[in-house]
Amino acid sequence: MIFRQLFDSVSSTYTYLIASRRAGEALIIDPVLEKVDRYLKLFDELDVKLIKAIDTHVHADHITAIGALRDHTKCITVMGEHSAVDTVSMRVAEGDTITIEGTTLQVIYTPGHTDDSYSFLMNDRVFTGDTLLIRGTGRTDFQNGDSIAQYDSLFNKLLKLPVETLVYPAHDYKGDTVSTIGEELLCNPRLQVTSANEYAAIMNNLNLTNPKMMDVAVPANLAIGLRQDDIDARGGSVTAADARALVDRDDTVLVDLRDVAERSKEGVIPGSVHTPYPELAAHLGRGGLLYELVRATGKRIVFYCAYGERSAMAVGAAYDAGLRDVCHIKGGIDAWVKTGAALEPGSDSN
Ligand SMILES: [Fe+2]
Hints:
Number of strands: 19
Largest sheet: 6 strands, mixed
Structural class: alpha/beta
Distance between the termini: 31 Å
Radius of gyration: 21 Å
Shape: elongated
Number of helices: 13
Bound molecules: fe (ii) ion
Oligomer: single chain
Helix content: 25-40%
Strand order of the largest sheet: 1-2-3-4-5-6
């Protein structure tokens, strides 16, 4: 396994790069905008393909790189369902999984530092964002923070993990790099409490100043969605309402770009076929499924995904592959459901 803990010294942020092998798929957690060039070089050096860029929450102390990485690498941006960002490619909730080839993250909803804080468990280690830090915990005094909720996230979720679980936080200001659940249970001064109220009393009396970057970082981190004007201007978008008329048309094929887990959870548009977004390039090339389908039948391809971001990128990729009669459902399944249109159960095989 490739596992890299990268550090931004300005914001003291840890960023994690994970891949199961060289020449394989990679994901990154909590990347920092100023480090994008370093990440891109590292992907190259390690010969990995970035598939998913994930933030544990909307950060207040640095600008996220997940939007910039999507623009550079066409990767999938991922955040939790409670994040107030304009658009990400994929949203996850408690109990969901985030997968790339050879790697699975279990999603744990851990509100408290913010109301959109998530932790990710990967086998022997947990990425705790700003919920559990080494010998500390994330402040709870802004961005809908809540010390009682954080107590619950800590004591009823993270601290219930096996004591040997490695703890990898989003920040450290002292130079520590990793801890364990057992070590934090014993040595973290904030955790030596006997009740939620006792914990809240500590957290509510920290009297911290706001992060220097907060007024810049939070608005920037809330506006990370893909710019789609170009695709719209080229006629590459249809509204979900208009897309309803395309189902069952013989000259059209709807292509779902979401992961298997999303399809199982949310359902699929009836009659659509499945091409996971990470496999798209192979399907659009000469000899690929979609390329040959269009060549043989002349059908129009209508891509869709969860929120219309992967599908907009797919339209761009299809144009680049020389396919012209291609569009996507703006706003994705999210917009589709809001029109009142039906979905059918999704499975591996359809
Ligand atoms: Fe934070």
